[in-house]
Each structure stands twice: as structure tokens, then as C-alpha cells.
Design brief:
Length: 616
């Protein structure tokens, strides 16, 4: 796509100028006033009955209506005679302009969403904007630039004047970079929204993965995380993903844009947002090794979006309406299958153990069952995720991934291990691709035609229907016995909820409402931060090993001693020593899995294919 645009621009300039004059934006990042930057726009000569200028209500990947127009201030139109022309504000996102032939330029200020005083509908930081004149700029372009209604397919040229020494990290290719200014040439508004830019003093590393140039750019305020570390962490993962996708990546360039923060975010969360040729991350700054698996999990998910929706998407996404968005029925495909693949690639390529992978899937089962409506048809939830079923949206990362797991197992069982969701996604990419969208109501028929009638039955019953996922039957096909519940007596940690404080870099007791008898005898309290556990210093990086070692070797009536940092009502910290004799507790395991020792040959073949055990 990018090379095609450059060819047209370079070889046929007269046709380009006559057929599609670009929007010409200019921004000076050296001038930031109260977390706002000024935008100057010269419009294309677009003929229209109504000259409606729009800022988006929503953008793809966010699944929330943010109304980015509320961050735009002092919107003015200056005529060719130098005088200000009248503008009618239609709503929070739209302005009616005078005759474009009379306009010299449009100007306005865009506000930083990260520091806004408007606390309603806080923008998830990876989808927002940050303007720090002396440090860093995060430009999610939908929060800065707009378009004329009916003119979102026109090209754009954006000139950005930057502070000394700042570098633009992005997935965009057609850039002229200078010491003071950068010029970006972009095919249309959809590509602009799909292409975030981070400006800061550079910490970048570029690696090659099967001919794809992968840029890793990092902003870490205390320099705890470097692009060199992340590149080493992701290099193995990206090569595994390359193998998973058949030996080649479907893009020529990709950018990982990482912002690490040492303070709480306005949304109170961290995470990432995917794009076709890049992904943006806002994560809490911690020691590098503490973040290693988190980086792999979240990066694997976002990177796999190069398959869907880039190469597999519905008409609702292909023709996305930024101001009156219509949702697709198939979030199980866009987010669920992507989340499943992010974990499945790691077990299949030997980056994590089978036990780790199965535990992740079991955790998703519990979350889907405990926090969401497990019988709500997933297609209906997807269609209504902006309003009626907004509280159910996050189930795409739980049940959505489990739909992908079940589909993968059923495909492999039917094909005797020769065909799974990896192959299905490749076939769907070939059938559709970047430029061709599918109709929502035709996808299941298409998948059935590529696979088996029983797959269509599964999709209709368990995805568009209200039947629960058939875990017992599905796991039997890979030689596992599945029990909804299993009771046991075992040594535990006490059944507290565990969290992490990125500021103190300590593990935290976040919830004590489920404490068992042993946990109560330990006298854990909400907010306790672990310092030592059984005499060993406890960190995020060694916690799994320390806890697993305790559970594997502890004896009843042995004394467990832990040290915690506890705050009083005034916030003063003091070190507390907690101890109690170890006691077994009654446990009920839900969604329990165990190997079926009498599995058939076909079930073993399917299991080996599913978990990548054939070659190991």
C-alpha cells in the first residue's frame, strides 16, 4: 500500500494534484501551552453541499465512544482576506464551515488527553495524546487531526516541527526527516488514525525478522527499560510468531512504541492498542526482568493483529464510520482469536510450558464464568458492545480466547492433526486480504466451506447461539479429562488476592475476603506489601519460584514466617513479621484438567499437534 502511494506521487504528480489535493497540516511541538498544541490546516478543494469538518467519536480497536472533539478548543477559520469567517458548531465533534473557496486556513488547539481535567469517559492512555514539551509527545492522530465529511479517503501531508534531538517513532514509511522538521505523507485518514507517532530523544533498536524491519522504540523516565532489552526479549517471540504464520510476516515494517510510566495513569490502568503496522504500549516502569513475560504476552497479542483486522475484517471495519460507528458481530475473531494465538504460539514454539499454557486457559475459563454472562451469544454481545453489552466487552479476552481454543482443537481433531486455526486464518487471509471485507452474516458459512460441517454447527451453537462451550467434549479430543469441580486437601498460601505496586516494586495483598483458615491465622491485611517470604526476599521476578517451592515442600505444622510493609491510617510504613503453623485447607478446583491415560491414538495425535509436542 505504501509503495503504491509513493509510486503515484513520484511518477504522476500532475494527476495526483488534480485528482486528490491533500490536507496540509502543520504542528509545532516546540510550542506547548497548558498541555495544548496548535494545529494549522489548509484544506483540500473538496466540493460539497455542506462543508462539515469532523473529529472522530470513536476509532477502531478502542470499542469505546470517546468523542475526541471535546479535546479541541478555539476552532477558527481564517479567510483569504485575512479575516475570521463564521463557523457553526453542530455538536461536540462537528463544525459547519463556510465555502471552502473562501478559506485560507483552519486553526485550533488540541488538548493532551492524559492530563485533561475532563474526568468523564477517560481515554485509555494507549489511545490518547500526551504533550510534554521537554520530554515526550505521544500522537494518536485521531486526537489531533480531523477530516471533511466525505473526504476521509483523501491524502494528507503533515509537517511537524520538533524539539532539538527528538525523533519520530512510527510505522509510517513515507517520511522526510530533518533536523528541525519532519514531513509525513499519508494515503488517507484511515491510515493516519492507524499510525501513531511517538516523539522523544531516541532509544530505538531495529531488528530484522524474516525480511521485516521491526522498530522498537522506548521512553522510560528512569531508564529502567531499554530498547536493547526489549529487542532481546521480543526477538525470540517474533521469530516464533513468524514460524506460526508460516515462515513470513505479512508486513515490511512494524513499530513497537513503548511508553513506561513511574506514576499512576488517569485511567488507573496500563495496556496497549493495536494498529496494522504498529502498536502502542503504556506500561508501569519496573525492573526489566520483572516485565519479561508481561512484555511477551501483551506484545504477542498486539503483533498478531497484523492478521486480523489488517487481512481479515468485516465491512463494518473496512468502511469504519468514525462518527457513527457500527460494530461487527465478530469480536471473537478480532480480539478472541488474537488473544488465543498470543498464548498458543508460545506453547507451540516451546517458549512456555504446557502447564503454563493450560493454566492460562483455565484462568480464562474462571474469569468468563465468574464475571460475565456465559450464555449471552457472543455475536450479539459484539454487536452491542458500545451500549447494551458494554460491561460484557472484556469477555473477548476470556471467552473469546476460549472460543479460539475450542475451534483449534476441533479443527485439528477433524483433520487428524493436519489443520488448525493457524491454517484457517491463513486461508481466510487469502480469501479476503487487506482490501476485501467480508459480510458479517456470511463469515460462518465461509469458515464451514473451508473446513467441516461440524465446525459450522459449533459456531452457530456456541458463538451465535447461547450454548456454553463444550469443554468436556473438546478436551477429550486432545486426551484430557475435564471436571467442572474437583475437591482436595492441600497446603496453600492462604487464598489472598495478589497484586503489584510499581512504585515500591513489591507484591501486594490486594484482597483478603477469600482468606482460608491458614490465611486468617497469618493475619494478612489488605495493602500488606511482601518484603520476605520464609526468609527469602520476594520480588516480582522470583515470586512464582518462591511460592511454588513452598507449596511443593512445606510440611503441616511447620512455621511459615513472612515480613510485610504495612501502612497505618496516616500512611506511615512499618515492617511487620507475620507467622503461623502451616495447615492444609480444603480446595475445590474448578475446570480441572488431567491427562487421560487411556487416550486413543487419534486423541494423542491431536494433542501433540495442538501443543507442538510432535517435534519435542
Amino acid at each position: 500500500m505504501y509503495r503504491f502511494f509513493i509510486f503515484i506521487f513520484v511518477c504522476l504528480p500532475i494527476f495526483f494534484l488534480e485528482a486528490a489535493l491533500p490536507y496540509r497540516y502543520s504542528v509545532d511541538l516546540r510550542e506547548v501551552n497548558k498541555d495544548q498544541i496548535k494545529i494549522i490546516l489548509r484544506l483540500p478543494d473538496l466540493k460539497s453541499e455542506k462543508n462539515i469538518f469532523c473529529f472522530p467519536a470513536m476509532v477502531p480497536g478502542t470499542y469505546s465512544v470517546y468523542n475526541f472533539g471535546r479535546f479541541i478548543h478555539n476552532f477558527k477559520v481564517t479567510g483569504k482576506n485575512g479575516e475570521e469567517l463564521p463557523v457553526k458548531k453542530l455538536d461536540v465533534n462537528r463544525y459547519e464551515l463556510p465555502d471552502i473557496a473562501l478559506i485560507d486556513f483552519v486553526s485550533y488547539e488540541a488538548e493532551d488527553t492524559w492530563d485533561t481535567e475532563d474526568k468523564n469517559d477517560i481515554v485509555f492512555e494507549p489511545a490518547g495524546t500526551k504533550f510534554d514539551a521537554n520530554s515526550e509527545f505521544i500522537l494518536n492522530n485521531h486526537g489531533i487531526f480531523g477530516y471533511l465529511m466525505g473526504g476521509n479517503k483523501l491524502p494528507l501531508e503533515i509537517e511537524i516541527t520538533k524539539p532539538d534531538g527528538f525523533y519520530a517513532s512510527t510505522g509510517l514509511i513515507d517520511i522526510t526527516q530533518g533536523l528541525q522538521k519532519d514531513i509525513f505523507r499519508i494515503n488517507d485518514y484511515h491510515e493516519l488514525v492507524d499510525s501513531p507517532i511517538m516523539y522523544c530523544k531516541p532509544d530505538t533498536t531495529t531488528i530484522d525478522v524474516a525480511g521485516t524491519r521491526v522498530l522498537i522504540s522506548v521512553f522510560s523516565p528512569n531508564k529502567k527499560i531499554t530498547s536493547a532489552f526489549i529487542s532481546r526479549t521480543l526477538n525470540e517471540l517474533l521469530n516464533a510468531q513468524k514460524n506460526y504464520l508460516g515462515g513470513k510476516l505479512p508486513v515490511d515494517k512494524y513499530a513497537f512504541i513503548f511508553h513506561f510510566t513511574d506514576a499512576a495513569t488517569l485511567s488507573g490502568t496500563s495496556g496497549a492498542l493495536e494498529h496494522s503496522y504498529s502498536s502502542t504500549y503504556v506500561l508501569f516502569e519496573a525492573d526489566s526482568l520483572d516485565l519479561e513475560q508481561v512484555l511477551k504476552d501483551v506484545s504477542a497479542h498486539e503483533f498478531f493483529h497484523i492478521v486480523t483486522p489488517l487481512n481479515i475484517h468485516s465491512e463494518e471495519i473496512g468502511n469504519f464510520d468514525f462518527n457513527q460507528p457500527v460494530m461487527s458481530e465478530h469480536l471473537w475473531l478480532y480480539e478472541g482469536m488474537t488473544e488465543y494465538a498470543a498464548h498458543h504460539v508460545q506453547v507451540k514454539e516451546g517458549l512456555i510450558t504446557v502447564d503454563q499454557f493450560l493454566q492460562t486457559m483455565q484462568d480464562k475459563m474462571l474469569n468468563a464464568q465468574d464475571y460475565y454472562n456465559d450464555t449471552l451469544p457472543f455475536t450479539r454481545m459484539s454487536k452491542g458492545c458500545l451500549d447494551k453489552y458494554k460491561t460484557q466487552y472484556n469477555n473477548v479476552y476470556e471467552k473469546g480466547a476460549l472460543i479460539g481454543m475450542c475451534l483449534d482443537i476441533l479443527l485439528r481433531y477433524n483433520s487428524n492433526g493436519r489443520y488448525g486455526t493457524q491454517d484457517l486464518m491463513a486461508d481466510l487471509s487469502r480469501s479476503y486480504g487487506k482490501e476485501t471485507a467480508f459480510r458479517d452474516d456470511e463469515l460462518f458459512s465461509k469458515i464451514t466451506s473451508l473446513t467441516y460441517p461440524s465446525i459450522g454447527e459449533f459456531l452457530n451453537k456456541c458463538v451465535s447461539g447461547n450454548e456454553k462451550l463444550p469443554f468436556a467434549d473438546v478436551f477429550k479430543k486432545v486426551g484430557f479429562n475435564y471436571l467442572e469441580k474437583k475437591q482436595s486437601e492441600e497446603i496453600t498460601l492462604g487464598d489472598f488476592d495478589l497484586g503489584y505496586n510499581p512504585v515500591s516494586e513489591r507484591l501486594v495483598v490486594e484482597g483478603t475476603f477469600n482468606l482460608n483458615e491458614f490465611g486468617k491465622k497469618m493475619h494478612y491485611k489488605d495493602g500488606d506489601e511482601f518484603v520476605t517470604f520464609n526468609g527469602e526476599k520476594l520480588t516480582l521476578s522470583n515470586a512464582r519460584e518462591v511460592f511454588e517451592n513452598f507449596l511443593a515442600n512445606a510440611k503441616e505444622n511447620a512455621l511459615l514466617t513472612v515480613e510485610v510493609m504495612r501502612r497505618n491510617k496516616k500512611g506511615k510504613e512499618s515492617l511487620k513479621k507475620l507467622s503461623a503453623k502451616v495447615k492444609k485447607s480444603k480446595l475445590i478446583y474448578r475446570n480441572h484438567l488431567e491427562v487421560n491415560q487411556e487416550a486413543s491414538v487419534k486423541e494423542i495425535i491431536t494433542r501433540n499437534s495442538w501443543l507442538g509436542l510432535s517435534g519435542r
